Amino acid sequence: MQLEFFKKLLKKIINPHEEEEAQTLEDLGDSLRNADLDYRFAQLFTHSGGFFNYCADESEALSILQQIIKAEGISSFFAWDEDLKNFLNVIKVPYTEALETHNDAAFITCEYLIAYDGKIVLSHNNIKHYNSARLPSKIIIMATVSQIVTNLNDAMGKIKRAGSVKNLTSISGNQNKLDTSSPVNQKLFLLLLED
Predict the structure, then answer these.
(1) Which pTM does this prediction carry?
(2) Spatial separation of the C-alpha atoms in residues 117 and 122, rounded to whole Å
(3) Residue 59 class from Cβ within 10 Å (0-12 exposed, 13-18 middle, 19+ buried)?
(4) Which residue positions does the secretion signal occupy (predicted)?
(5) Which residues pair with 189 in a beta bridge?
């Protein structure tokens, strides 16, 4: 009994953050099990290192977008969604419809926001044929509250019904130790609009 206790103690001393961070995300998810989907998603998304911004309307989203651009020193976007290109045209920020090496940020939409683990589901509708690992180190995603779903199964069912099954992937903030696909230096910003 005492030997087991000392083994656990030694493991915590040697790797104090590794186990705690992985468990903390799971523990946080468990503690939010009965919370509203939007609150649960926001908590888990920010806990994993994402930057969550609630926007009451498009003018507030535009204002927050400008603040992010200024704070992050963004000078060129990868953006191909017509509505998002209109946002960038209003604030006169250059963009390309194809992913270029000089793009220092991506401004994209998403398929769904997963409340279960705070991840964001993308498809070819959002990132074309590009692998999510090739996206710039700063990603700004525009989504609506109605895109929040309970879990990945809900999202996959809706995606299959809509026929959007090409180039599916999910991304999360850079501090999510359970997600090894996200580049370590990637910053993920979400502008969540009320429908």
Answers:
(1) 0.83
(2) 15
(3) exposed
(4) none
(5) 51, 140
Residue 108: which domain range? Answer: 24-193
Whether residue 11 is contained in a domain is answered as no
Q: How far apart are CA 114 and CA 44, in angstroms?
A: 10
Amino acid at 142: M
Sort residue 173 into left (φ over 0), alpha (ψ -120 to 50) or beta: beta
Query: Given the structure tokens 């969550």, which residue do they identify?
Result: 52
Q: Is residue 94 part of a domain?
A: yes
SS3 of residue 103 by DSSP: coil
pLDDT in tens, the chain (195 residues): 444 544 444 454 455 444 444 546 667 667 777 788 999 999 999 999 999 999 999 999 999 999 999 999 999 999 999 999 999 999 999 999 999 999 999 999 999 999 999 999 999 999 999 999 999 999 999 999 999 999 999 999 999 898 867 999 999 987 654 444 555 578 999 999 998
Output the domain CATH number for residue 130.
3.40.50.10420
* DSSP3 helix / strand / coil % (the chain, rounded to 5): 45, 20, 35
* CA 45 and chain centroid, separation: 7
Task: Report the run of H or E that residue 20 belongs to, with start and end.
Answer: helix 16-31
- Report yes or no on 175 lying in a domain: yes
